[in-house]
């Protein structure tokens, strides 16, 4: 074995248990259709919330005479 190859860990499940796990994972029990992730929308929401909080803090500062 060379230094770059990782060690393969020994199997922790028996063949029967692994077969049960594989059957469960392929059964689609928790398979849910999801909308595609849209990072641009997330960025717009974050910038919008940040802008609102900044404007709110400026308004509070002006009413208290800080700015």
Automatic annotation (TrEMBL):
Keywords: Membrane, Transmembrane, Transmembrane helix
Domain of life according to the entry: Bacteria
Transmembrane regions listed in the UniProt entry: 40-61
Protein name, UniProt field: DUF3094 family protein
Protein source organism: Microbulbifer harenosus
